[in-house]
Structure to design on (338 residues):
């Protein structure tokens, strides 16, 4: 039912693309990160929370249709529904059913509950399209509670030395998780403009998030040090940081599990926290889908597809998409929402 072509993942029967990478007539969008939600489509179909984020990113005038999770629509006989992916707020897996054949496009996902996005929903299907960003057995992410403890200890140590703590994470998804960890810290929380904009939008949607203050010179000078600043990766190493001196920086990413990642990021501390599935989560998602046909995209796709063939005897193939290198480059160079 689904094929891969130069524009993206295509359903010929319903005449829709899923997360297409070039402009199309109708696009189903799994979530609002820039490598999956691109501009120029005539119509967007997405979850209701993603709709507001798309308008923030792509403009108020885009044509959208928003669904709740598990709310089906039918297009030319194809039953289409969106289900929680647990990646970020509003993220969705796309389930398509036609004449008894079921496909699921997972988009980006994680099975770890972040207490912000709706938890990942297991779906049974015949064909499962999965990412493999962390599709190597070296990736085993710790319990977020441990990361929270490590974060609070790091901040407390900085506080004793009267040093400001700068915490780095992507504006949509990671930043909200970092801010959530800081609720019990009795210190002012400031944020980069990209993060305050998204935080305010999500609060406007009714999400129970902590408000943050824009880190302008006037705002930080009105409060004595030490304080906390949340910022996107693109701000690391820029002149924007000078006004926060003295400071220490910490980066939040699944890539922090790799030796040398902190040094390459030019930060003082790295914390292992990801909105993607690690090795065990990927394997669990594959097994609970009960799908015999697996299509692997994003990251370590050839290695992971080979593992699925040899270990589980599945019909697993790697698929070339324009997400592949871009995702890794975005991890290396900047924020996905700016």
């Amino acid at each position: 039912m689904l094929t891969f072509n130069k524009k993206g993942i295509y359903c010929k029967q319903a005449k829709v693309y899923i997360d297409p990478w070039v402009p199309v007539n109708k696009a189903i969008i799994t979530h609002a990160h820039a490598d999956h939600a691109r501009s120029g489509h005539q119509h967007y179909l997405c979850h209701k929370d993603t709709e507001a984020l798309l308008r923030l990113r792509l403009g108020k005038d885009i044509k959208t249709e928003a669904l709740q999770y598990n709310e089906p629509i039918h297009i030319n006989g194809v039953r289409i529904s969106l289900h929680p992916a647990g990646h970020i707020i509003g993220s969705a897996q796309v389930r398509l059913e036609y004449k008894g054949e079921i496909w699921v496009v997972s988009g980006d996902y994680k099975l770890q509950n972040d207490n912000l996005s709706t938890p990942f929903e297991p779906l049974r299907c015949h064909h499962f399209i999965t990412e493999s960003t962390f599709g190597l057995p070296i990736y085993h992410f710790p319990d977020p509670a441990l990361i929270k403890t490590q974060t609070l200890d790091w901040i407390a140590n900085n506080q004793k030395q009267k040093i400001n703590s700068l915490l780095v994470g992507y504006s949509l998804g990671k930043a909200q998780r970092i801010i959530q960890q800081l609720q019990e810290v009795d210190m002012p929380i400031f944020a980069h403009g990209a993060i305050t904009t998204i935080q305010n939008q999500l609060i406007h949607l009714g999400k129970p998030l902590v408000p943050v203050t824009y880190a302008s010179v006037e705002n930080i000078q009105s409060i004595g040090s030490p304080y906390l600043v949340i910022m996107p990766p693109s701000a690391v190493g820029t002149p924007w940081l000078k006004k926060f001196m003295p400071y220490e920086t910490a980066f939040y990413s699944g890539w922090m599990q790799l030796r040398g990642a902190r040094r390459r990021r030019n930060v003082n501390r790295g914390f292992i926290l990801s909105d993607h599935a690690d090795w065990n989560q990927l394997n669990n998602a594959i097994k609970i889908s009960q799908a015999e046909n697996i299509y692997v995209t994003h990251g370590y796709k050839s290695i992971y597809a080979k593992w699925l063939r040899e270990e589980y005897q599945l019909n697993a193939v790697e698929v070339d998409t324009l997400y592949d290198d871009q995702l890794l480059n975005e991890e290396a160079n900047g924020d996905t929402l700016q």
Remarks:
- The chain has nine helices and 19 strands.
